[in-house]
């Protein structure tokens, strides 16, 4: 039985779409647990001051993980590792030990510095917090500083397992990470008090690492400390990660700036932003991340082989599937925003006002969902063709747009009543306080739209025929989704008198049947338009997943 269990973890997959669907399966599983996590937090605390502190505590550890942890990300390590494994296991061992030693020393030193300066640093970053909130924030942040160290090591282990196609092991890592957090909420919170929440996060990081240990041990490549560090090799490896690290850093800096602003707004603003951001991240993980990761090894190989026509065909196919799925998600999130938030988060201390604000924020995020998903693929496309500079520059522009837009939108919202009335009326939140928080997801969406459009234009100029190839799917998916959205909206009105919207199952029934009718109509429209993506999906659904392939698992980018 044990042998069969271990063999299961060594299974491989063939085909980009099949790989994407398998990665999506793990992403869905992980996201379900993430939603359970958010449900428990919302039920227990509501969108208030405490959760503001809890979410703020992740920002410094997240930033450390993104900047230092990306040094050992799979995108960086795997090409070097594969090259050395092709020569000898001893060369691979030298790379692993050198990178591990330098990484561990650097991240521990950075974490210790952050620990020492956390009090004044956090007071500067979150000026709206009261002294009691800041005291709790410092304690939480210091505990969470363990996470980037553990997850960084897990990242390196992930590079090793993926180099041997043990992707199922890594696929379970984020699942166990969320299991640890949920365990912290259910078990640690009653036992250890509020600090139990963040100790649950640390437990999740440990589980994220431990699930990979047996596979790496079996490969006989467990990283070890070494006094004979190959510094030229380490510098070469780290230099490769710099553009990606800076690009991710800009994104996290923009989010940090938004949360810093949120700390000066009404209590619960950080929580509202995070709840809605986490909800809009579900389709990003399932669609954008899955497809971009599944296609990356293939397009990298095609570029090296100078097969540009094949490269264009593969990345265009993935882009069309991303568009096919993303636009319907956007429409569903906008039309069913209140139902989604109330079903997933509503109950306990998460009241109707919290629901309405979170739903409005979710709708604002959703407007950029299609371009956020496409951007994930295009960035991987740039990496595959050896261009790391363009995503870096565009990400810098996008981050700047987000930060500047946030200040501008807040000023406009607070000083121009016509604009404020328009936003509040559009999302039906004019009768509740704290609506200024909606300017933050609006700013994020503005930056994401700029990011997506600029990346699409530049990538299209480098890969001839790419933009033209995705237009048919875009218009087909958009047409079907708009009609789908109209039918969902009309169905909601019809079911108003059938289901009791004061109860969970009544709300779920109305949303489910309305969405079912709308989706059925959308599928019918796509069939009438002879959409190719539906044919591909149907064909892949009838093939076996468990075959062979090389898949690069997702790099965790946040603690």
Automatic annotation (TrEMBL):
<feature type="transmembrane region" description="Helical">
    <location>
        <begin position="323"/>
        <end position="345"/>
    </location>
</feature>
<feature type="transmembrane region" description="Helical">
    <location>
        <begin position="282"/>
        <end position="303"/>
    </location>
</feature>
<keyword id="KW-0133">Cell shape</keyword>
<feature type="transmembrane region" description="Helical">
    <location>
        <begin position="197"/>
        <end position="217"/>
    </location>
</feature>
<feature type="transmembrane region" description="Helical">
    <location>
        <begin position="357"/>
        <end position="379"/>
    </location>
</feature>
<feature type="transmembrane region" description="Helical">
    <location>
        <begin position="63"/>
        <end position="83"/>
    </location>
</feature>
<dbReference type="GO" id="GO:0009252">
    <property type="term" value="P:peptidoglycan biosynthetic process"/>
</dbReference>
<keyword id="KW-0573">Peptidoglycan synthesis</keyword>
<feature type="transmembrane region" description="Helical">
    <location>
        <begin position="15"/>
        <end position="33"/>
    </location>
</feature>
<dbReference type="InterPro" id="IPR051050">
    <property type="entry name" value="Lipid_II_flippase_MurJ/MviN"/>
</dbReference>
<dbReference type="Pfam" id="PF03023">
    <property type="entry name" value="MurJ"/>
</dbReference>
<feature type="transmembrane region" description="Helical">
    <location>
        <begin position="391"/>
        <end position="410"/>
    </location>
</feature>
<feature type="transmembrane region" description="Helical">
    <location>
        <begin position="238"/>
        <end position="262"/>
    </location>
</feature>
<feature type="transmembrane region" description="Helical">
    <location>
        <begin position="137"/>
        <end position="157"/>
    </location>
</feature>
<keyword id="KW-1133">Transmembrane helix</keyword>
<dbReference type="GO" id="GO:0005886">
    <property type="term" value="C:plasma membrane"/>
</dbReference>
<feature type="transmembrane region" description="Helical">
    <location>
        <begin position="471"/>
        <end position="492"/>
    </location>
</feature>
<feature type="transmembrane region" description="Helical">
    <location>
        <begin position="169"/>
        <end position="191"/>
    </location>
</feature>
<keyword id="KW-0812">Transmembrane</keyword>
<dbReference type="GO" id="GO:0008360">
    <property type="term" value="P:regulation of cell shape"/>
</dbReference>
<dbReference type="GO" id="GO:0015648">
    <property type="term" value="F:lipid-linked peptidoglycan transporter activity"/>
</dbReference>
<keyword id="KW-1003">Cell membrane</keyword>
<dbReference type="InterPro" id="IPR004268">
    <property type="entry name" value="MurJ"/>
</dbReference>
<feature type="transmembrane region" description="Helical">
    <location>
        <begin position="95"/>
        <end position="117"/>
    </location>
</feature>
<feature type="transmembrane region" description="Helical">
    <location>
        <begin position="438"/>
        <end position="459"/>
    </location>
</feature>
<dbReference type="GO" id="GO:0034204">
    <property type="term" value="P:lipid translocation"/>
</dbReference>
<feature type="transmembrane region" description="Helical">
    <location>
        <begin position="504"/>
        <end position="529"/>
    </location>
</feature>
<protein>
    <recommendedName>
        <fullName>Lipid II flippase MurJ</fullName>
    </recommendedName>
</protein>
<keyword id="KW-0472">Membrane</keyword>
């Amino acid at each position: 039985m044990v042998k069969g269990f271990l063999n299961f973890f060594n299974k491989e997959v063939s085909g980009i779409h099949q790989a994407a669907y398998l990665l999506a399966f793990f992403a869905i599983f992980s996201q379900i647990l993430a939603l359970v996590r958010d449900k428990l937090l919302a039920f227990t605390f509501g969108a208030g001051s405490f959760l503001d502190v809890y979410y703020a505590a992740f920002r410094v550890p997240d930033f450390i993980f993104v900047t230092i942890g990306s040094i050992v990300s799979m995108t960086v390590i795997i090409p070097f590792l594969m090259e050395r494994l092709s020569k000898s296991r001893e060369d691979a061992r030298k790379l692993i030990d050198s990178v591990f030693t330098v990484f561990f020393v650097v991240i521990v030193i950075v974490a210790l510095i952050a620990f020492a300066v956390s009090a004044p640093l956090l007071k500067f970053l979150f000026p709206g917090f009261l002294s009691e909130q800041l005291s709790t924030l410092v304690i939480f942040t210091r505990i969470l500083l363990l996470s980037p160290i553990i997850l960084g090591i897990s990242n390196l282990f992930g590079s090793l397992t993926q180099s041997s196609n043990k992707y199922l092991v890594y696929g379970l890592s984020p699942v166990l990470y969320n299991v640890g957090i949920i365990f912290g909420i259910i078990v640690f919170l009653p036992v250890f008090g509020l600090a139990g929440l963040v100790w649950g996060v640390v437990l999740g990081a440990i589980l994220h690492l431990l699930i990979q240990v047996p596979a790496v041990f079996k490969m006989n490549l467990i990283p070890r400390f070494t006094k004979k560090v190959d510094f030229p090799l380490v510098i070469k490896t780290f230099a490769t990660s710099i553009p990606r690290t800076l690009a991710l850093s800009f994104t996290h800096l923009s989010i940090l700036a938004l949360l810093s602003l949120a700390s000066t707004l009404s209590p619960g603003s950080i929580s509202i932003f995070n709840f809605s951001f986490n909800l809009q991240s579900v389709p990003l993980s399932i669609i954008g991340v899955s497809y971009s990761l599944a296609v990356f090894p293939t397009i990298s190989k095609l570029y090296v082989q100078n097969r540009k026509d094949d490269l264009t065909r593969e990345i265009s196919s993935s882009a069309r599937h991303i568009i096919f799925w993303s636009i319907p998600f956007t429409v569903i999130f906008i039309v069913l925003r209140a139902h989604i938030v109330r079903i997933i988060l509503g109950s306990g201390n998460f009241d109707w006002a919290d629901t309405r604000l979170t739903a409005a924020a979710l709708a604002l995020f959703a407007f950029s969902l299609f371009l956020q998903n496409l951007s994930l693929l295009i960035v991987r496309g740039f990496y595959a063709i050896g261009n790391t500079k363009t995503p870096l520059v565009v990400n810098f522009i996008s981050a700047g747009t987000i930060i500047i837009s946030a200040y501008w939108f807040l000023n406009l919202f607070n000083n121009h009543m016509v604009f404020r009335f328009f936003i509040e009326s559009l999302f039906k939140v004019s009768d509740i306080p704290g609506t200024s928080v909606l300017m933050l997801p609006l700013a994020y969406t503005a930056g994401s739209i700029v990011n997506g459009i600029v990346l699409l234009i530049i990538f299209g100029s480098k890969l001839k025929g790419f933009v033209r190839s995705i237009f048919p799917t875009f218009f087909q998916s958009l047409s079907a989704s708009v009609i789908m959205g109209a039918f969902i909206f009309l169905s909601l009105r019809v079911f108003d008198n059938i289901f009791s919207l004061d109860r969970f199952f009544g709300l779920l029934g109305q949303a489910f049947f309305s969405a079912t009718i709308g989706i059925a109509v959308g599928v019918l429209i796509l069939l009438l338009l002879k959409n190719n993506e539906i044919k591909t999906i149907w064909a892949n659904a009838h093939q076996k997943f468990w075959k062979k392939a090389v898949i690069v698992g997702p790099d965790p980018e946040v603690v």
